[in-house]
Design brief:
alpha+beta, Molybdopterin biosynthesis moea protein, domain 2, 3-stranded antiparallel beta sheet, two-stranded antiparallel ribbon
Length: 116
Amino acid sequence: MKKVTAENLKPGDILAKDIISGKGITVLKKRTVLTDKFIGNIKKINADSTGATDNYIFIEGTGDTPAEDDMKNKGKMEKELSLLEKRFQRSEKDEFMTEIKEIIKNVIIKNYGGSL
């Protein structure tokens, strides 16, 4: 499962969780394959209910085959981990900063499926 903003949804994405409106109504059920129309409705619901468009939508994957989806996620995760290393490069001797880096690293790994 991966979380994305409504702005980053694309046709073929598969919902991992139900989408509930601000009034508690189930709008789309999990395992729904998203279309352009569904995505437009999700964006409208997010904007109407919160005034913000950065709410996360949980998706199981995309219309890609599982192997293609896994490869894309692994590449993205490796890129984020590489950027993390660069950001903390100057603070290698600071124990506190090293702990912070490890926490962030674990969050990144968890968000992309849990393993390298």
